[in-house]
C-alpha cells in the first residue's frame, strides 16, 4: 500500500520536530562539556568555542586539586550510598507488607500514606522537626526526612502485587516466615525493580540541594550541589564563601567560566556514567505503577 | 481451623449467658481476633515498622507543627510557653501588601506552566507514538529523558553559562552583529524563562506515563477505525486521544492541587535581585521569613495557606471530573 502524500508530509514534519527537540535538550549540555575540555588559553582569547583546536584537562586538574570540591564530592557520594541503602530497605519492607492480602492494617495504612500526598504541612514545621531532633549539621538531616514518599511506596507495592501468590504459598509450606519469604523469594524475584528504585533514590540523594541549604551550615557536611551553586554565582566582584572563592583563583589564571563548566560536568558525571546503561530500568520503574493506574 | 472452633465456642458462650451484656464480649472477641492475626503476621509488622515510623515521624508529626500558625512562636520560650494569638498571623499575612505580589507571581508562573508545560509531554508522546522507526524512537527518547536526572543546580548552571552575559548565545548574537542580551535578569521574560526551563528539563520524562497509556490502547480499535476509513489524523482524534483522556485528567487534577507550588529550587536558583518583583513566590517568601528572619509562626501561616488551597483545589477538581463521568484520583 502506498502511503498518502499528506501522511508522508506529516512523517517528515514529525521526524524534523522530534530530532530538533532532542538536539535542543542535548546541545546546551554538550556545549558545557566541550568548553570544560577546551584549552583555557584558547577559551580566554576566543570564547566562541564550537569545536576547540586544543583539548585540555587543565580546569579539571585544577578543580580536583582544590580542598573544597573533592571533599564535597565525597560527602555527596556517602550521602548517595547510605541514603539509597536506607531508602531501599525501608520502602521495600513497607511496600511488601502492604501488598499482602492478609495484612490487617493494610487499608488504614494505605489511606494514611495517601493523605500525605494531598497535604504537606510545609517547610517550617519540617525544619523545626529536624532541628528538634538534633539533626542539623549531620548527614542524617539529608537522609531521614526524605527516606521515602507515598509515591515510591505505592509504585513498589504495585510491583509486589504482580508477583504470583503461589510463590509465597509454597515457601510458607516449606516453613518460611514472612521475613524469610521477603528476603529469599521476593527480593531476588524483584531484582530489576530494586535496580530501578535504587537508581531513583541514588539520583535524588546525589542531587540533594535545598535540604542542604536548610539543614547544613557546617562546611564539612556540604554536599557537592551546594558548593557548585556557590561556585556558579560567585564572581570576582562578589564576596561570597571564601573557600569557594578560592576555587576560582588558580595560579595558572584559568578563566572562571571553564572552571565552572568543569564543575558542572563533574556534578553530573555519575549520572552520565550510569544513564545509558540503566535508562530502561528507570523507565520500567516508572511504568510499573502507571500502567495499572 | 482454630479460628472456626473459636468462633463456635464464643457463640456457645453467648447462647449460655443471654442475660449478660453482649458488648464486652464482642470487644473481647474482637481483641482476641486481633491478637491472633497479629501473632500470625508479626513479621509483616516487623517489615513495615521502619516505614510506618518514617511516615508518622516525618509526615504526621509536622502536621502538629501547624499549630505554630496560631501561636507567636519564640525559640527561646519554646512551643508550650509561646503565646497563642489566634488568627493574628493570618491577618497580618493577608493584609500584607506583599500578599498580592506573591499571589500574582505564583499564579502567573503556575498558569504558564499549566498552559505550556503541562501539554508538552502529551504532544511529545503523541508525536513519538507516530514514529515507525523504532531505533530512531529509542534514540530520541534517550535524549529527551536525560535532563530529568540533572539537578536544578546543574540546569541553572547550564543556563548561566549559555544564556548569561558571557555565554555562547550572546557571543553568537554579537558575532552576527546583534546586541548582547542578558536573558537571566530580564524581569519581563523571567516567567517565560522558567517555563522554557521546565519544558527543557522534564517534558521528555513526562512522556513516559502517556506512552504507557498509549501502549495500553486496544489495537483492535485502530483496526476498526481503519475499516471505517479513518486516516491517521482521524485515528489520532477518535482513538488515541480518548485512549489517554483518563490519564490526562488524573494528571491535570494532581497538577491543579499544586497551583501554589511553583518549583521552589528552580525559582530560588534562578532569581536574582533584578527579578525579585516577578520571582518572589509563596515558597521563597516563607523561606525568607521563616528560616532567614526567624519568623517561624508567620512563615508557617504561609505554608498552611498554600496547603489548604491545594487540598481544596484537588477536591474540587476531582468532583468536577467525576461529574463529567471521569474516574478522578480517588
Give an account of the 3D structure.
- The complex is a heterodimer of chains A (293) and B (330).
- Chain A contains 14 helices and no strands.
- Chain A is mostly helical and 293 residues long.
- The radius of gyration of chain A is 24 Å and the shape is globular.
- Helices cover 73% and strands 1% of the residues of chain B.
- Chain B has 17 helices and 2 strands.
- Chain B has helices spanning 2-16, 22-40, 42-64, 78-81, 88-94, 97-117, 119-129, 134-145, 152-163, 168-175, 190-215, 219-227, 232-256, 264-270, 276-279, 282-292, 296-323, and strands at residues 71-72, 83-84.
- Chain B has a two-stranded antiparallel sheet.
- The chains are: A mainly alpha (293), B mainly alpha (330).
- At the A-B interface, helix 1, helix 4, helix 5, helix 6 and helix 9 of A face helix 2, helix 3, helix 7, helix 8 and helix 9 of B.
Which terms summarize this structure?
heterodimer; A: mainly alpha; B: 330 residues; mainly alpha; 17 helices; 2 strands; 73% helix
Describe the biggest sheet of chain B? Answer: 2 strands, antiparallel
Largest interface: A-B, 93 and 97 residues
Class of secondary structure makeup of chain A: mainly alpha
Oligomer: heterodimer
User: What's the helix count of chain A?
Assistant: 14
Q: Extract low-pLDDT stretches of chain B.
A: 1-17
How many separate helices of chain B? 17
What share of the residues of chain A lie within helices? over 70%
**Main sheet of chain A, how many strands, which sense, barrel?**
none
List the helices and strands of chain B in order.
HHHEHEHHHHHHHHHHHHH
User: How much of the polypeptide of chain B forms β-strand, as a percent range?
Assistant: under 5%
Mean pLDDT of chain B: 85
Q: Unreliable stretches of chain A, pLDDT < 50, 5 or more residues?
A: none
Termini separation of chain A (Å)? Answer: 38 Å
Could you give the count of β-strands of chain B? 2
Helix-residue proportion of chain B: over 70%
Average pLDDT level of chain A: 86
Amino acid at each position: 500500500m502506498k502511503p498518502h502524500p499528506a501522511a508522508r508530509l506529516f512523517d517528515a514534519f514529525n521526524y524534523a520536530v522530534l530530532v530538533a527537540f532532542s538536539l535542543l535538550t542535548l546541545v546546551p549540555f554538550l556545549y558545557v562539556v566541550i568548553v570544560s575540555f577546551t584549552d583555557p588559553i584558547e577559551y580566554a582569547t576566543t570564547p566562541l568555542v564550537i569545536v576547540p583546536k586544543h583539548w585540555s584537562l587543565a580546569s579539571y586538574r585544577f578543580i580536583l586539586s582544590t580542598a573544597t570540591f573533592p571533599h564535597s564530592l565525597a560527602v555527596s557520594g556517602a550521602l548517595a550510598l547510605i541514603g539509597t541503602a536506607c531508602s531501599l530497605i525501608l520502602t521495600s519492607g513497607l511496600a511488601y507488607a502492604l501488598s499482602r492480602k492478609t495484612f490487617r492494617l493494610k487499608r488504614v495504612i494505605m489511606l494514611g500514606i495517601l493523605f500525605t500526598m494531598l497535604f504537606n504541612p510545609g517547610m517550617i514545621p519540617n525544619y523545626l522537626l529536624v532541628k528538634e531532633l538534633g539533626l542539623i549539621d549531620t548527614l542524617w538531616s539529608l537522609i531521614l526526612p526524605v527516606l521515602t514518599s507515598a509515591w515510591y511506596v505505592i509504585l513498589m507495592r504495585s510491583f509486589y502485587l504482580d508477583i504470583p501468590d503461589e510463590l509465597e504459598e509454597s515457601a510458607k509450606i516449606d516453613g518460611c516466615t514472612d521475613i524469610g519469604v521477603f528476603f529469599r523469594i521476593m527480593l531476588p524475584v524483584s531484582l530489576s525493580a530494586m535496580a530501578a528504585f535504587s537508581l531513583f533514590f541514588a539520583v535524588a540523594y546525589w542531587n540533594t540541594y535545598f535540604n542542604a541549604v536548610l539543614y547544613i551550615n557546617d562546611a564539612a557536611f556540604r554536599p557537592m550541589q551546594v558548593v557548585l551553586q556557590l561556585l556558579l554565582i560567585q564572581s570576582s566582584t562578589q564576596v561570597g564563601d571564601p573557600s569557594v572563592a578560592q576555587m576560582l583563583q588558580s595560579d595558572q589564571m584559568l578563566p572562571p567560566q571553564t572552571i565552572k563548566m568543569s564543575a558542572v560536568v563533574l556534578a553530573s558525571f555519575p549520572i552520565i556514567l550510569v544513564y545509558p546503561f540503566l535508562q530502561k530500568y528507570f523507565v520500567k520503574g516508572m511504568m510499573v505503577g502507571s500502567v495499572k493506574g | 481451623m482454630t479460628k472456626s472452633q473459636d468462633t463456635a465456642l464464643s457463640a456457645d458462650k453467648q447462647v449460655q449467658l443471654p442475660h449478660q451484656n453482649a458488648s464486652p464480649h464482642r470487644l473481647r472477641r474482637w481483641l482476641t481476633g486481633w491478637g491472633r492475626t497479629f501473632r500470625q503476621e508479626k513479621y509483616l509488622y516487623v517489615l513495615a515498622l521502619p516505614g510506618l515510623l518514617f511516615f508518622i515521624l516525618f509526615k504526621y508529626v509536622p502536621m502538629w507543627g501547624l499549630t505554630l500558625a496560631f501561636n507567636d512562636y519564640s525559640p527561646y520560650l519554646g512551643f508550650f510557653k509561646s503565646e497563642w494569638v489566634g488568627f493574628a498571623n493570618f491577618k497580618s499575612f493577608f493584609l500584607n501588601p506583599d500578599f498580592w505580589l506573591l499571589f500574582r507571581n505564583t499564579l502567573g508562573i503556575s498558569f504558564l506552566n499549566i498552559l505550556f508545560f503541562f501539554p508538552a509531554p502529551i504532544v511529545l508522546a503523541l508525536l513519538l507514538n507516530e514514529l515507525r522507526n523504532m531505533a530512531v524512537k529509542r534514540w530520541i527518547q534517550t535524549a529527551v529523558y536525560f535532563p530529568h536526572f540533572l539537578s536544578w543546580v546543574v540546569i541553572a548552571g547550564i543556563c548561566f553559562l549559555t544564556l548569561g552575559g558571557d555565554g555562547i548565545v550572546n557571543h553568537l548574537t554579537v558575532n552576527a552583529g546583534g546586541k548582547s542580551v542578558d536573558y537571566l535578569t530580564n524581569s519581563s521574560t523571567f516567567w517565560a524563562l522558567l517555563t522554557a526551563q521546565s519544558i527543557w528539563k522534564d517534558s521528555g520524562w513526562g512522556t513516559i506515563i502517556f506512552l504507557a497509556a498509549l501502549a495500553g490502547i486496544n489495537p483492535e480499535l485502530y483496526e476498526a477505525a481503519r475499516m471505517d476509513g479513518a486516516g491517521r489524523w482521524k485515528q489520532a482524534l477518535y482513538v488515541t486521544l480518548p485512549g489517554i483522556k483518563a490519564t490526562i485528567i488524573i494528571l491535570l487534577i494532581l497538577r491543579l492541587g499544586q497551583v501554589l507550588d511553583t518549583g521552589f529550587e528552580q525559582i530560588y536558583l534562578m532569581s536574582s535581585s533584578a527579578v525579585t518583583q516577578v520571582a518572589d513566590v509563596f515558597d521563597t517568601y516563607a523561606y525568607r521569613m521563616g528560616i532567614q528572619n526567624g519568623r517561624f509562626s508567620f512563615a508557617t501561616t504561609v505554608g498552611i495557606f498554600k496547603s489548604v488551597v491545594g487540598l481544596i483545589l484537588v477536591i474540587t477538581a476531582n468532583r468536577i471530573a467525576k461529574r463529567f463521568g471521569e474516574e478522578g484520583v480517588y
